[in-house]
Amino acid sequence: MEAAADDANKIDETKKCQKCEQYRDWVMQYSPNVVFMLEQIQRAGGSVPKDKISCEICKDPKYGGFHPELGIQLCANYIPDKWVLNDTLSHELIHWYDNTRFKVDWLNLRHHACSEIRAASLSGECAIMTEFWKHAGFMRVARGHQRCVKRKAVLSVMGHPACKSKEQAEQVVDEVFRSCFNDTRPYETIYR
């Protein structure tokens, strides 16, 4: 019985990874944001080989992550569709861009917070309509984008091994928020 359950689970995981790879390939070809970020990373002197964007089964509930040496991890078991993968990949590519362009010290909480602020703001995941639909219309439009960016940056910084508390994450995000939020590179401007 256990062997059959394990086999069924492996088949399900394989299907999720294959679907994730289809989504990844589609957004890498057709998503304006993803295509733009891939071009900007190349202009900054980097490259993003497709084999460095992997679809995997993740233990922690998240959509993905970036590691400067390993690349981008997309969590096939948590990404429900290509639109979520698009936002996730856009977010992680901003980290890749920051790492290429600015030589981020990922062990430094302020550096990490800055890249998280930029990624949440520039990736589209905090766009007004995205937040509106996620929160059933209860979000106030004024400053909603900034609140979303702060919330997501704090959550990411809390996951950093050097972060000791939510309060510390909030403090670090607050310290760098203005300058990092206003830095829209490589975009000239962003729409919110």
UniProtKB/TrEMBL annotation:
Entry superkingdom: Eukaryota
GO CC, alphabetical: mitochondrial inner membrane
Keyword Cytoplasm annotated: no
Compartments, as annotated in UniProt: Mitochondrion inner membrane
Assigned keywords, A-Z: Hydrolase, Membrane, Metal-binding, Metalloprotease, Mitochondrion, Mitochondrion inner membrane, Protease
Main localisation: mitochondrion
Mitochondrion listed as a keyword: yes
Membrane topology: Peripheral membrane protein
First-level EC class: hydrolase
A GO biological process held by the record: mitochondrial proton-transporting ATP synthase complex assembly
Entry's Gene Ontology molecular function annotations: metal ion binding; metalloendopeptidase activity
InterPro entries reported in the protein's UniProt record: Peptidase_M76_ATP23
Pfam families: Peptidase_M76 (PF09768)
Enzyme Commission (EC) number: 3.4.24.-
PANTHER family: MITOCHONDRIAL INNER MEMBRANE PROTEASE, MITOCHONDRIAL INNER MEMBRANE PROTEASE ATP23 HOMOLOG
Protein family per UniProt: Belongs to the peptidase M76 family.
Function: Has a dual role in the assembly of mitochondrial ATPase.
The name this protein goes by in its record: Mitochondrial inner membrane protease ATP23
Provenance organism: Brettanomyces naardenensis
Biological classification of the source: Eukaryota, Fungi, Dikarya, Ascomycota, Saccharomycotina
